Give the backbone structure.
Amino acid sequence: MTHVPAAHGRPLRDTAPAKPPGTLRPHELPGATPIIRFRGVQKAFGKQVIYEDLNLDVFPGETLTIIGGSGVGKSVMLKLLIGLLRTDAGSIQAFGQEVTTLPERELLHLRGKVAMLFQGAALFDSMSVEENIKYPLIEHAWGTEAEMDRRVDEVLEMVDMPGAQKKKPAELSGGMRKRVGLARAIAIQPEVILYDEPTTGLDPINVRRINGLILSLQERLGVTSIVVTHDMDTVFTITDRLAMVYGKRIAFEGTPEDARVADLRYLREFVQGGYGTLDEDL
């Protein structure tokens, strides 16, 4: 494989498991149509402009990773998608609906299709694991108490944490809390899962465990995944396509293979990660 020379450090990473020859990524399938579209999105907080012209498509069944420097608005993008933040201008469509004009009741319905794993898992400390997972089930009137109990058991099995129902978050490690947060996200059987920095603060073993769960859930449940991350090893392990936020817009969009050969300095230096030094520092 050809590599773009990396500035004063190691070559660009090549850690991704290669797709078998002839395998099409979800966006390459015949007739593939985006289920989520951002068009001309603008967002600012006071004088701080986050997005001037955000445009991005998300295809069903793919894992799309969002990369970019700290503070550029990657997590803001996820919150705009599910209506936790409102755009200043532009369009966001999900499942054929215009998200920017949906009333709160319809946003709740959308959040039944699009679940989010927040940074740090965002578990309720006063609730047990079981109660945390049941929270969205109750909010969405998912079923009877017995049905919810069965669902809690099922999703804990999926994230390799059977028998943890009665534990409190304080009794769990960081990696275990992430997995409980993921169990809560998938409990309502969403079609799309948003991951906000899912591996931040985890040791390498737990990073690999979370990456494996993201891949296995995509395969077992057929979900679409949008992953915000700074971890380039995670990017090249799980990604079908990646998009880089730079200059208040999506400055690059493509496959991991495209990223490795792209002649874009800001992308090359970001992908290189923590190895070596930056050109401007020499």
User: Anything to note?
Assistant: The CA atoms of residues 128 and 167 lie 5 Å apart.
